[in-house]
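Hi U.,

Before I forget, here's the chain from the pilot set. I'm dumping it here mostly so it's searchable later in email.
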Amino acid sequence: MAQKTIVYIEDEPYAREPLAKLIRIWGYDCLEYDSAVDFLKEDNLAAPALYICDLNLQDMRALEFCDELKRQNVLRPFIITSGFIDQGAIEYVAKHEVAFSTSPITIMQKPLKLPEFRDTIQRMLGDA
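Structure:
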């Protein structure tokens, strides 16, 4: 079975690099980006099996990034992470869980609880 690829977009390297390393230890390929805009310039947006994205990036909110992927018909599971989860993000996730049931979306509070984070990745990828 081929290794599943996860794209992890986080503009803070101190947060991104250790979690990306853990994702690799857990058996996944992890592509790291510090910018959603830079990732959107890539040729193969549909290749990753899962997207993980910080809610408040410097160049684009995760909600806008998720909308752009859906606009391009890239329907993949999506984990939004944030130190502060606002009501708008909660409502967005609730609305899109119904509208895009083929691509689950969830939001997780930072600091992430690693067992829960790993379990969420596995569940969203069907590896649980």
